[in-house]
Write a structure and sequence with these properties.
This protein is an alpha/beta fold. 37% of the residues lie in helices and 14% in strands. The protein contains eight helices and seven strands.
């Protein structure tokens, strides 16, 4: 992780390409607004049926470039075997201290893939640990101000939706840069979804959430706390 004066947003995910599927448009939108963004992938996706860890790391770097991400790193934890251990939490806490984000994006805490749920647990507890002054860990204590949970694959009502209509096509370019995962391959016909199917699935999901906020495409998020509003006159989305 690049040492800096601090990042505004850090997205933590279990595997390379998870961020691109869940909150890539939001990261791109924040980058376009001048915010410094970063990604931490916990594993290299080495248990995936297609591609190699080396290929996925190269593809992750290209996807990060498309999304305008300043820094992307990998924690080197085991794919399909993530466990919420103190060692895993400290590894993530060290990154949090290093990049000092104001906002951390995590996967929703319930998921079909166990790694995604474990990533959410590890990320949340690492955010807490990173702020402990007496913790035996390099770097100055830092605790993010806000934790958001990307919920595009969770059957829950979002706390809010980010309009990513202007960023959606670049978000799809970033995702499809994972050629080892999504490029159509004749030997895998019928076993894995190809580019067209993946693109249509995500386009449909983004349209569904975009419709909730009167936009073409959206990315949903959940927060555990109540959001504060100071100006009710400027609230978006019509009631009638």
């Amino acid at each position: 992780m690049e040492r800096s004066e601090g990042f505004h947003v850090l997205a933590v995910a279990a595997h390379p390409d998870d961020v691109e599927q869940t909150c890539g448009g939001t990261l791109l939108k924040m980058a376009e607004r001048g915010y410094r963004t970063a990604i931490l992938d916990l594993t290299a996706g080495e248990m995936g049926s297609r591609g190699t860890p080396g290929q996925r790391l190269e593809e992750a770097a290209e996807a990060a470039r498309i999304l305008g991400v300043v820094s992307r790193s990998n924690a080197g934890l085991p794919d399909a075997r993530l466990e919420n251990t103190i060692q895993a939490r400290l590894r993530v806490a060290r990154v949090i201290r290093d990049c000092r984000p104001g906002v951390v994006i995590l996967p929703y805490w319930e998921a079909r893939h166990p790694d995604h749920a474990r990533c959410s647990e590890i990320g949340y507890e690492a955010c807490f640990l990173a702020g402990l002054r007496k913790l035996d860990l390099d770097g100055d204590p830092h605790r993010p101000r806000k934790i958001l949970y990307s919920s595009i694959y969770a059957d829950v009502r979002p706390s809010f939706v980010v309009d990513v209509s202007a960023q959606f096509e670049r978000r799809m370019r970033a995702l499809l840069s994972y050629r080892s995962q999504y490029a159509d391959q004749t030997e895998a016909a019928g076993l894995f979804p190809g580019e067209a199917e993946v693109a249509e699935r995500l386009r449909t999901a983004a349209r569904t959430y975009g419709a909730l906020i009167d936009s073409e495409y959206g990315e949903p998020f959940v927060v555990k706390e109540v959001l504060r509003v100071d100006d009710i006159v400027g609230l978006g989305v019509r009631s009638l």
